[in-house]
């Protein structure tokens, strides 16, 4: 018994000892010393993360990885992308395979407190919906009783769908997939009557289908799905950098700072908040141990939040989504940067 207790105490002490350097800022220091950011992204979803014809990753989440690399290294290309499926994404993060997860991941309480990871702050607002063939008479989810529904394993959508049908005393048959492309193929092949996931992902999936006009996304939304980055627990400095990086991207739009005018604004602005943001007065960068021009470098690399959104998700993009809840708070949306002072 004593030997067993001693072995347990030794194991716990070893674990705590291994975690000690991270708590002291080890991860943040290691990333800077490594000179490249390891960023977890989707395995392939139009608008969020998808390789182009040259094999170069493009998308909303990809640009958030690139912007963070620009803040850290003044080089948006110093990123190593790791495509992760829904079931493996949090394990990859908690094990140290990636430094940060920018991967259409809803920030929830149980994920934040129970998986050894930390939710940062939302950078995209969405809600669960369903997509069906356009030639059906289905116009609302209550008409899907008895349907076979494609779902992604290990997502909040799997839970939301089950709870909706159970609450409304409806039967359905789930068909689970690890990847979005697998679910999309099954839907087009007729293995499922509907696909249940977040509305932005449904729009992204539809844009990549053989005949997008043959599919409709039902109007109802059944959940709150605030996407945002995750980091693993144990390094407050790294958490702070990622948190204030996301706020800076939003604040740049609030302040009217764009790729086209960032140099001019830095040179001429008299607004104290904008001067702090753009490093004219250096206290924000100093607080995060970053270059005073860290926000300038971000905006030059990827633009402000609105520019990122319009490029990959907006009405003129293949995904074709209006800003909606992802508009700035001053224009009726939910995006609100914390005060950067």
Automatic annotation (TrEMBL):
InterPro entries linked to this entry: Bact_solute-bind_prot3, SBP_3_CS, Solute-binding_3/MltF_N
One Pfam family from the record: SBP_bac_3
Keyword GTP-binding: no
Classification via PROSITE patterns: SBP_BACTERIAL_3
TM helices/strands, residue ranges: none
Keywords carried by this UniProt record: Signal, Transport
Domain Solute-binding protein family 3/N-terminal as annotated: residue spans: 36-265
Family the UniProt entry places it in: Belongs to the bacterial solute-binding protein 3 family.
Record-given protein name: Amino acid ABC transporter substrate-binding protein
Protein species of origin: Roseomonas populi
């Amino acid at each position: 018994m004593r030997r067993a207790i001693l072995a347990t105490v030794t194991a716990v002490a070893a674990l705590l000892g291994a975690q000690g350097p991270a708590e002291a800022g080890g991860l943040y220091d290691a990333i800077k010393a490594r000179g490249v950011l390891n960023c977890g992204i989707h395995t392939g979803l139009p608008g969020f993360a998808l390789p182009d014809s040259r094999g170069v990753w493009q998308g909303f989440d990809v640009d958030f990885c690139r912007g963070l690399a620009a803040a850290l290294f003044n080089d948006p290309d110093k990123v190593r992308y790791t495509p992760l499926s829904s079931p493996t994404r949090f394990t990859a993060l908690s094990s140290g395979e990636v430094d940060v997860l920018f991967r259409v991941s809803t920030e929830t309480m149980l994920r934040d407190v129970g998986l050894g990871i930390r939710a940062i702050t939302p950078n995209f607002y969405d809600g669960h919906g369903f997509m069906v063939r356009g030639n059906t008479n289905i116009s609302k989810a209550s008409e899907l009783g008895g349907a076979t529904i494609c779902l992604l394993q290990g997502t909040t959508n799997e839970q939301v769908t089950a709870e909706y049908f159970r609450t409304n005393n409806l039967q359905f048959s789930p068909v689970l997939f690890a990847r979005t492309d697998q679910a999309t193929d099954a839907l087009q092949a007729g293995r499922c009557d509907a696909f249940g996931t977040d509305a932005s992902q449904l729009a992204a999936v539809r844009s990549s289908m053989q005949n997008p006009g043959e599919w409709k996304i039902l109007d109802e939304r059944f959940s709150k799905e605030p996407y945002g980055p995750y980091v693993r627990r144990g390094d407050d400095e790294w958490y702070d950098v990622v948190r204030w990086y996301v706020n800076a991207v939003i604040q740049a739009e609030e302040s009217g700072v764009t790729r086209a005018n960032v140099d001019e604004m830095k040179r001429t602005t008299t607004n104290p908040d904008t001067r702090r943001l753009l490093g004219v007065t250096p206290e924000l960068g100093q607080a995060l141990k970053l270059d005073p021009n860290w926000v300038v470098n971000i905006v030059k690399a990827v633009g402000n939040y609105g520019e990122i959104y319009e490029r990959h998700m907006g009405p003129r993009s293949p995904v074709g989504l209006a800003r909606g809840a992802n508009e700035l708070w001053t224009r009726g949306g939910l995006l609100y940067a914390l005060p950067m002072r």
